[in-house]
Design a protein that fits this description.
Blueprint: E1 10-19, E2 27-36, E3 39-45, E4 54-56, E5 60-64, E6 66-71, H1 87-102, H2 105-121, E7 124-130, H3 134-144, E8 147-154, H4 165-178, E9 185-191, H5 199-212, E10 216-220, H6 224-234, H7 238-244, E11 252-256, H8 262-271, E12 274-277, H9 279-284, H10 292-298, E13 302-304, H11 317-330, H12 340-346, H13 349-354, E14 372-376, H14 388-395, E15 401-406, E16 409-413, E17 416-417, H15 423-437
Parallel strand pairs: 1-4, 1-5, 6-7, 7-8, 8-9, 10-11, 11-12, 12-13
Antiparallel strand pairs: 1-2, 2-3, 5-14, 14-15, 15-16, 16-17
Helix pairs in contact: 2-3, 2-15, 8-10
């Protein structure tokens, strides 16, 4: 048994169960995944494995690393500051005033580090981010060793970060150019929402997306207020407006999509957009519950995100996945429940496909990066285990995370962070910001 693979380039991981998330949704029993130079080199029955440097995980399930499809990682600095407000009040009375007063590069870097540590500890190996000072979030992800798709944020409002569309554009693409060679960092275009981005700006964003092959990551139909404002200003619903502007398509990731009528669903279907559901955030901000079964029938992919800590308090996509499943069963439009494999795919391979990263992550297959999570199913909370995926989703939690690897590098071992020398320092720096904000 290998005690520490953090400095190894060749090693194996043995588990009682391995959920591959491949095209056949294979669940392997008593197999070993062999890692070579950060990638999956071979998968074989454990009885055929005679290599010495094997990590034996015992009664655990090994899965692809979880992908948090929507978050604002730096908003960890506002976790718990406004817990009892609906979205419009939350933004206008709590979030935006604090951002205007305190937001800068250093705060985003330090708060994003804390978020990355929480996500690794929760089994997340990749996150899809949207926030100001994207270079600070990218630096934090690289320092901690987490994979990140960072949004180049656009908003037609002056903020501490930028003044207008041209300024957001210049800063966003300067960041993208400077991080082009970082293997852990990819980028997308991130217009904040229809109610904060103009028609002209959206048209430019579509042009850049087409020219550069970038995805578009945008809040959409989160609240009834958003829809009513669009009807007042434009005479049409937000998704219809984006359709007429040519923004929708298979490269579009619409976040939330809580309030959808039949016309909206037809546009989702005809444009084959990706939907990212954030159920905990939607419930906490009283935004509502999306028509989950109808979304699943129409969207290209439906995936799951946590949103930021300020509107969720936890960056555990596994917890949101369980809630998503329970809410699906509350949707009276359909009684065919999603099976555990389909749910797990939402936070692994389907998420990777939405980000166009499925050639390197999202499933346990030979040639892909060794972004892996081991969940311990041996404890009293998950026993007995009849179906390991069901036990993980419905009985497990982020406390079940045993080991985490990113690019074959061990980041979390025996339920403790490893190769992170200054976790306490990160916490203390965020506490200093807290003292200023209070």
């Amino acid at each position: 048994m290998l005690e520490d693979s953090s400095n190894q380039t060749h090693f194996g991981i043995k588990a009682r169960w391995i959920y591959t998330a491949n095209d056949h949704q294979e669940l392997l029993h008593n197999h070993t995944v062999f890692i070579k130079n950060g990638s999956i080199d071979k998968i074989a029955p454990s009885e055929l494995s005679n290599q010495s440097n094997i990590i034996d995980l015992g009664e655990s399930i090994l899965t692809p690393g979880l992908i948090n499809m929507h978050t604002h990682s730096a908003m960890t600095f506002l976790k718990g500051i406004a817990d009892d407000q609906k979205l419009t009040d939350w933004l206008e009375q709590s979030i935006w005033p604090n951002e205007a007063k305190f937001l800068n590069h250093d705060l985003v870097f330090e708060a994003s580090q804390l978020a990355c540590l929480e996500m690794i500890s929760s089994g997340v190996t990749t996150f899809n981010d949207m926030y100001f000072y994207p270079e600070a979030t990218a630096k934090a992800a690289i320092k901690i060793g987490l994979r990140a798709n960072i949004g180049l944020v656009f908003i037609d409002l002056k903020t501490n970060y930028a003044t207008d569309f041209s300024d957001y554009f210049d800063k966003g693409f300067a960041f993208r150019d400077s991080f082009r060679d970082e293997s852990l960092i990819t980028t997308s275009l991130a217009p904040h929402a229809p109610y904060t981005v103009s028609d002209e700006s959206f048209k430019k964003i579509r042009t850049y997306a087409d020219q550069l092959g970038l995805n578009i990551h945008c809040h959409l139909h989160e609240t009834e207020w958003e829809i009513n404002e669009s009807l007042k200003k434009f005479g049409i619903r937000p998704i219809d407006r984006l359709h007429r502007l040519g923004i929708l398509g298979p490269d579009f990731m619409g976040v939330h999509c809580v309030h959808l009528n039949e016309s909206d669903l037809r546009l989702i279907d005809s444009n084959q957009i990706n939907i990212i559901s954030c159920p905990s955030s939607n419930l906490k901000l009283a935004s509502g519950i999306p028509p989950i079964n109808l979304m699943i029938d129409k969207a290209k992919f439906v995936t799951v995100g946590t949103d930021g800590s300020a509107s969720n308090n936890k960056l555990s996509v596994l917890d949101d996945l369980r809630l998503f499943s329970l809410l699906q069963r509350n949707d009276r439009n359909e009684y065919k429940f999603l099976k555990s494999e389909d749910l797990m795919d939402m936070v692994t391979i389907d998420a990777a496909k939405s980000l166009d990263l499925d050639s390197i992550i999202g499933s346990i297959e030979v040639g892909k990066k060794a972004d892996l999570v081991a969940f311990d199913l041996s404890n009293i909370f998950t026993q007995p285990v009849y179906d390991p995926l069901s036990s993980l989703i419905y009985s497990g939690s982020r406390d079940s995370v045993q080991h985490v690897w990113v690019d074959g590098q061990l980041k979390f071992k025996n339920k403790q962070l490893v190769n992170v020398d200054d976790a306490e320092s990160v916490i203390e720096k965020v506490k200093l910001w807290q003292n200023k904000i209070q």
